[in-house]
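Box 3.1 A note on notation
Throughout this textbook, protein chains are presented in two layers. The first layer is the amino acid sequence; the second is a token string describing backbone geometry. Keep the layers aligned when reading.
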Amino acid sequence: MNTQITVHPKLQHYGLAAAKLDAMIDWYRKVLGMTVNQRAAVPPEARDRAPFSAFAFLSNDQLDHRLVLFEVREAFVDPDRRRHTGLQHVAFECATLDDLLGTYVRLKNLGVLPQWAADHGVGISLYYEDPEQNRVEINASNYSDTWTATEHLRVSRGMMMAHLDPEKMVAARKAGASPWELHERAVAGEFSPAKPHDPSARP
């Protein structure tokens, strides 16, 4: 048993309180390919004591669960939540930029649009909100290995932010631009959106 050296546990799953369990399950199925591995309601005799009325364990890989949704019937979406402390966003990584852009197109066809998109230097990210305004980032690295991506962050001065229009990036990719060329053109401002990003706007 190691009692002196810091171990490095990996992020396994996160939990969200939800006002509408069905709507949240549907969104995570549609957007992230989540499967419900277990869903149950709290027995009536325990509902006065439990802080939630039902729950669902979801995953989009081989792990038994990556997300747990807890239905809290008296919960509501806080319109002022951005001023509060708490989880700011959670991110999911695509293996390639093509997977990310393909996901954008698939979700757009389902009526699900990102709030905004950006090239952060280290990677390209799309930011969505679930039905209860939790931010979900879907991204792809600009680098082929994690060491190079980490070194990029180590030597960067401040956070890079090149806002982009995913439609322009999809069109450039279809026209034959490589993923690295897309990154360079995004940083140069070629894919800038027609309107500047408004953090208070809803898609």
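Helices lie at 21-32, 97-109, 146-155, 166-174, 179-187. The chain has a mean pLDDT of 92.
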